[in-house]
Amino acid sequence: MITNEFKNKKILVAGVGKFPRGSLNSAIRFFVRAGAKVTVTDAKPAPALKDGLKHLKGLRVAYHLGKLVKKDFENADLVIKAQGNREQAPFLGAASKAGVHVTTDVGLFMLFAPDLPTIGITGTRGKSTTTALAGAMIKADGWAEFVGGNMKVSPLNFLKDAWRDYDAGKRAAVVLELSSWLLEGWENEGISPSVAVVTNIFPDHLNTYPSYAAYARAKAEIFLSQSADDSVVLNRDNLETKKMSKLAKGKVYWFSKRPFVGRGACVKNKTIVFKDKKREAVAKLSDIKYLSGAHNLENVLAAVAAAKLVGVRNSSIRRTLRSFRGLPDRQELIRARAGVRYVDDTTATSPDGAVAALRTFGGARKKIILIAGGKDKALDFKEMAREIKKYAKGLVLFEGTATDKLIKELKRAGYKPDLAPVVKDMSTAVKIAADVAARGDIVLLSPGAASFGLFKNEFDRGGQFKKAVAKL
User: Fold this and answer.
1) 301, 256 Cβ separation under 8 angstroms
2) 2-103, CATH topology level
3) Which phi and psi angles does 236 have, rounded to 5°?
4) DSSP readout, 216-264?
5) CATH classification for the domain delimited by 106-323, as one of 1.10.340.30, 3.30.470.20, 3.90.226.10, 3.40.1190.10
6) Is 104 helix (H, G, I), strand (E, B) or coil?
7) Among 21, 247, 280, which residue's Cα sits nearest to residue 147?
8) For each of the chain's 472 residues, which pLDDT tens digit applies?
């Protein structure tokens, strides 16, 4: 068994996770089962970590909570780091200097996974939908599909099953959603998936990166260790991904909403076409039944290109496009009441996400009452303000640093809403929006900002929205 590699090894997991099958908590359980000596450290004290610790009850683990200690990092045989936690950086550096291997749960999976076709998907927007869609296409083709990563499911949960199917000679593939934080260090570790997909790159997380270029470079690590036999799928309609192609070592495939000359997926005459050695019609646009908006068309094209590259049949792709309804919390219609639709788009944590939602649901008549705002990630709100002016008849804002910036941009854009209160809780926001909404309107939660301060995370924000709407 692969887990014998870690018997009696000193493993440090640097953080307590929030989700039962997420990165950190899954790593803790994985190493406990492997017979390792597991220490969990977190700068937060136990009371602040109670939601995560409840998932770890009964495990034989040593907890060093309340502060980080350099000796814990230096004395470990392996350190599993948390995503995007810059407070850990000096301690991780000390571990590396001491010769300790530092990685994430996904990095560990990539190092020990069987040689199955592996699709890695990153990008600022659309990576979750593209990941789920590619996985659904693989499943529809009769393969065993293993889907995880930055979507509350660590791939360590299915490492054993992936090896089982590989040893049995069963057709199987892995699809991983990868954040920029998960990709940090992959170039040094020599890790890349056989098919790397970058959906798009827009400014995001600039509160944790020194520059936009550094953020984009972290995304590029998804393919920097590929060989010439591997493939990278890039968005031909996005400036940053076009620039990335110069760094690719594998074969470059593009996707675009418009026809182009070269390898990849595009739309021509209302047909999705894929070209590699030959050009073939894969599906009609009319086969896409539930995913609306230009951004979702890009997600479909990226998933089609990835699926084709691992050998999925066109008939399976079409069947998936006809049945795939999207993911929760991503432009999800949760209720229609008195002629008003309520849509949860809580995962729009940056302005470009809110812009995509406004364009999807907007029209000639202003019918959107937008619930937005929150904590800033050092991002620009000019375009979001312009789109709010164009499409929103009403606006409710959450208190936060992003809201302060957005209000300034709204004033510059000349937006004079009848409704723009700043509130501190979801129930108030939903009640105000519902009172203003008329038949045919849409109450849209698409914050364009981070959730921290008022909510535990974006999923808690979406959950509170659903509860508040259900009480109307």
Assistant:
1) yes
2) Rossmann fold (3.40.50)
3) -70, -15
4) HHHHHTTTTT--TTSEEEEETT-HHHHHHGGG--SEEEEEESS--SSSE
5) 3.40.1190.10
6) coil
7) 21
8) 465 899 999 999 999 999 999 999 999 999 999 999 999 999 999 999 999 999 999 999 999 999 999 999 999 999 999 999 999 999 999 999 999 999 999 999 999 999 999 999 999 999 999 999 999 999 999 999 999 999 899 999 999 999 999 999 999 999 999 999 999 999 999 999 999 999 999 999 999 999 999 999 999 999 999 999 999 999 999 999 999 999 999 999 999 999 999 999 999 999 999 999 899 999 999 999 999 999 999 999 999 999 999 999 999 999 999 999 999 999 999 999 999 999 999 999 999 999 999 999 998 889 999 999 999 999 999 999 999 999 999 999 999 999 999 999 999 999 976 668 999 999 999 999 999 999 999 999 999 999 999 999 999 999 999 999 999 9
Please name the helix (run of DSSP H) or strand (run of DSSP E) that holds residue 51, with its range, or none: helix 50-53
**In CATH, what class is 332-470?**
alpha beta
Tokens of 25: 């908590």
Whether pTM > 0.90 for this model: the answer is yes
Per-domain boundaries in the chain:
2-103, 106-323, 332-470
Q: Are 302 and 235 in contact (CB under 8 A)?
A: yes
